[in-house]
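quick one if you have a minute, typing this from the bus. theres a chain ive been looking at and ive put its sequence and its fold in token form underneath. please have a look and point out which stretches look like helix strand or loop to you. anything you notice is useful, everything is just below.

***
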Amino acid sequence: MFHKKTIRDVNVADQIILVRTDYNVPLEPIDSESHSGTAQMRIASDLRIQASLPTIKYLLEHDAAKIILMSHLGRPDGKHDQALSLKLVAERLAELLPGTAVSFVDDVSGPEVEMAVEALPQGGILLLENLRFSTAEEANDEEYVREIVDSTHAELFVQDGFAVIHRGHASTDAITRLLPSVAGLLLEKEVTTLESVIQEPQRPFVVVIGGAKVADKQPLIDKFLPLSDQIFVGGKIAADGYQSNNPKLIVAEDFDTAGDGAKLDIGPVATAKLIEMVQTARTVLWNGVLGKVEDAAYATASTILAKYLGEHHEITSIICGGDTAGFVEELSAEDPSLRYSLVSTGGGAALELLCGEKLPGLDGLEDL
């Protein structure tokens, strides 16, 4: 059970609502260049924008007066980097919400923001500029978000940026000391689904671990050894010789190799063993790709697993980790019939939640 108040537990009608979203979307250059000679960018995947829509639509349907969205994008290190402006996100959001007034302002506080909020019609949406254009965001500066609250006249804060709840930043932590603070629907879904695999997964429960760094994955392996029925380890950590004597833990032993002998994907025997494991599973948690998926020649095992899980909807399938979620999302774009129980929008946040770490952006919300 989700133990924090959500937007369903409070009255949002006629309120100016400040929502922390996660619009840290991947960008890619367009072939043409702008007049300034810099490459123009476009959104490579709008998964995170799409994921924010249930909360936004709920607020609109329940007569919120005005919705102010805030997010970061990339790592501008306190500099106003126009290549990391959220204007592109506002344009995409307007496309996804036809009939709704969606505006953008290139600041987060001050007179320009006040005027933009004042000009917003009833039921309108305003996206503020990249929070990380100021170092005060990552410094958890309370005065920084106080200025945002004062400029927007916000009356309620909604945390819906699951991917940042493990960060003690101004828009995740300090903000909760200034406004009544509740969870959005995305945050509720992510936390509830991930906690369910810790507390009461449907069995058999199989965990699939890939990726490159043992240091990142060992806490997850340690956490799930007593909770899962089997753990399969692939990816670079298996290729680098990861070992375990635990009979519940299966490590890939054959690999597809490059001409120089580098092990870049798990091999057919390991892949067959993995699919045999998930065929009988009721719950599968997958974190970490199984090969060098950016090269199609070494994406075979990850593709086979992703398609199997996406085609077998009776399996509770939870995909977490930035690279893994991005890989699965690309496959889903090519084949919309692939469906998963959860493709998590948060890499680090999901891992820290699963491992029982402190989550400032969740802890500060009002309890039920």
Notes: Residues 47-61 form the longest helix (15 residues). The radius of gyration is 22 Å. DSSP finds twelve helices and 16 strands in the chain. The CA atoms of residues 225 and 246 lie 9 Å apart.
